[in-house]
Write a structure and sequence with these properties.
Length: about 240
């Protein structure tokens, strides 16, 4: 019998390769599978939830376990150290699903191309509020703070899409935390007419009005780096 994580993988592949008219129902199925996912389903090693691993000198603040990647989806596990975070970053023209499987995190999410951000950008361009160059080079982004929520193992799956909640920062609460992450398409694949799909990092430049911010693209912060651990969960078959 196929394992739960294998069923998730198959459903993820189906969801992100199916006909457009079947996408919503497949996404719904994928989310309902993810909602029932635990650390045991991927055999997450208990070392990740103990302090001794994270106290090792030189230990990366975030560990990644790659589970699967093809041209359409990537599936993996992120584990963040106590008090650590994933810096604010984007997912260009991607969908993302997050299911927390250990610990607790605060996910702060921003949306782009909302009614408010589009209106503010068109007003700013007219009044030349920001140099047009910054927009052209996409170094400054207008984004709407959509939510800041505490998510733990009892919470449902968090979903982001090309506009809604497309940027987020993920901060651990009370100890280390781990989440299963599905991204479609993967980083590195081509965005039509726009080159490879890169992960960009941002900081808040200014607040324009309640919940609307200008975000400045930055290099990856020096305090953020990752190391990799092998996947040790059930064997996966996609055929
Ligand atoms: Fe992310």
């Amino acid at each position: 019998m196929s394992s739960h994580i294998n069923n998730i993988l198959k459903q993820a592949i189906t969801t992100f390769t199916c006909r457009p008219d079947l996408f919503c129902s497949n996404l719904h199925l994928l989310i309902s599978l993810l909602d029932r996912t635990t650390a045991e389903d991927v055999n997450l090693h208990p070392q990740f939830t103990t302090d001794s691993l994270w106290n090792q000198p030189g230990k990366a603040p975030v560990s990644c376990i790659d589970i699967y990647e093809d041209n359409n989806i990537t599936m993996g596990i992120f584990i963040i150290k106590p008090g650590g975070k994933l810096p604010l970053h984007n997912h260009p023209e991607m969908h993302g699903l997050i299911k927390v499987i250990a610990g607790k995190v605060t996910i702060t999410s921003y949306s782009i191309n909302t009614e408010k951000t589009v209106e503010i950008d068109s007003r700013s361009l007219k009044s030349d509020f920001l140099p047009a160059l910054s927009y052209t080079h996409k170094k400054i982004l207008t984004a709407e703070l959509t939510s800041s929520e505490i998510v733990d193992t009892s919470s449902n799956t968090c979903l982001l899409d090309p506009n809604n909640k497309n940027l987020h920062e993920i901060l651990t609460v009370d100890g280390p935390a781990a989440f299963l992450d599905i991204l479609a398409p993967p980083y590195g694949t081509l965005v039509p007419d726009n080159g490879p799909r890169l992960c960009s990092y941002y900081s808040i430049l200014s607040q324009v009005c309640p919940n609307i911010y200008r975000l400045q693209e930055n290099k990856s912060p020096s305090w953020y780096w990752t190391d990799a651990f092998p996947y040790t969960g059930p064997e996966l078959q996609v055929q």
